[in-house]
Amino acid sequence: MYIQHNTISIDIAKKVCQVHYILTSGKTVNRQIKTVKLTEYLVQFPSSIIAMEACGMSHGLARKLTEMGHDVKLLPPQFVKPFLIGNKNDKNDAKAIWKASFQPDINPVPVKSVEQQEVNFVHNLRVKAVEGRTKTINQIRAFYREFGIKAETSKQKLYLQISLTLEDAELKISFLGRELLSELKLRWQQSNEQIKRLEKLLKQYSEENDEIQRLMEIPGVGLISATSIVSCCGNLKQFKRGRDFAAWLGLVPRHFGSGGKNKITSLSKKGNEYLRSLLIHGARSVLALAIRGIGNSKWAELEKRTCFNKTCVAIANRNARVIWALLVKTERYKTI
User: Fold this and answer.
1) What is the number of other CB atoms lying within 10 angstroms of the CB of residue 34?
2) CA-based Rg of the chain, rounded to a whole angstrom?
3) Strand partners, 33
4) Contact indicator for 208, 115 with CB cutoff of 8 Å
């Protein structure tokens, strides 16, 4: 079967997919196929460009289609939406994807490998475990506040305070309250154990990955940041320059321009929020050490001229550009 521009677009879903293409005769085909039978349907086509939105299921399907000899383009959904004409439905969505696939300014999302997706899932579980631990700690603080007891500020002291509370027979807390506090303490312990298990998996993965080892040589980039970058972005060759990677992470100011007048405001905060937060957290550690006289003194000087948070963003921006250089040029970090 011969099609125009050798391009097929697919709007994928859990049960059904919408396939859109135009035959050489000019006839438009936009039909619904069951998801389980999609690969069987695409066997009849020669090697083609298959465009899809980057979403759930897209990476696994993209790997299968690549094995079949097709060239898969995963398009960011936010760039496909402007091409939607009419009401939102599967047919119009598939047509919008087909139109967006011809736009040279839209950079496709790299197809993730099985290994990358597995590491991403480890990170997702770790994030949920950290959030669960934070919720539990807040519940413990709320418990103490309701009974008029001052809760310790640090987590280490608060954990010790729970044990002292349970052992103190003079406190006017009934059996039910003590059981509740014991349950919260147990949840805290379970969250800590889960986080340690997941970080152990990431460490085992990093030991066999040279890219991660090279990234961890950068001040402010640790195990969590390095594994997340490699699993989420791969080798970063989809970015032409380190500045593009930093901009994609949202580590640059937002820009407005009209009629020759340009205005620069706060951070754009585009791209991957999780990666951006990791780089900024790492930058805070670098700056805190620099202020104490450890590490690069220029960051401490910059902090005196501006402020702490702006300096952290500057460090994170620099680290993003260094990360791009190390991965794309396969070099090691050199201290200047």
Assistant:
1) 11
2) 26
3) 17
4) no
* pTM of the predicted model over 0.85: yes
Other Cβ atoms closer than 10 A to 26? 7
**Do 183 and 166 meet the contact criterion of CB atoms below 8 Å apart?**
no
Closest CA to 301 of 319, 293, 49: 293
User: Helices 297-305 and 273-291 meet at what angle, rounded to 10?
Assistant: 100
Could you tell me which residues are beta bridge partners of residue 71?
49
Whether the CB-CB separation of 322 and 219 falls below 8 Å is answered with no
What is residue 257's predicted lDDT score, i.e. its pLDDT? 80
Kindly report, residue by residue over 102-142, the tens digit of the pLDDT. 999 998 999 999 999 999 999 999 999 999 999 999 999 99
Same-domain check for residues 128 and 186: yes
Burial 100-138 (b: 16+ CB within 10 A, else e): bbeeeebbbbbbbeeebeebbebbeebeebeebbeebbe
Lowest-confidence region among 253-257, 313-317, 324-328: 253-257
Give the residue carrying structure tokens 């059981």: 179
Please give the Cα distance from 138 to 97 (Å, whole number).
Answer: 45
Q: The domain containing residue 127 runs over which residues?
A: 114-208
DSSP state of 46: -
3-state secondary structure of 105: coil
Residues 56 and 118 in one domain: no
Q: Express each pLDDT in 43-82 by its tens digit.
A: 989 999 999 999 989 999 999 999 999 999 999 999 999 9
> Can you give the CATH number for the domain in which 61 is found?
3.30.420.40
What tens digit of pLDDT does each residue of 162-181 get?
999 888 877 788 889 899 99
Whether 321 and 215 map to the same domain: the answer is yes
Report in angstroms the alpha-carbon separations of 334 from 314, 325, 326.
Answer: 19, 11, 10
Q: In which residue are the tokens 């791209």 written?
A: 271
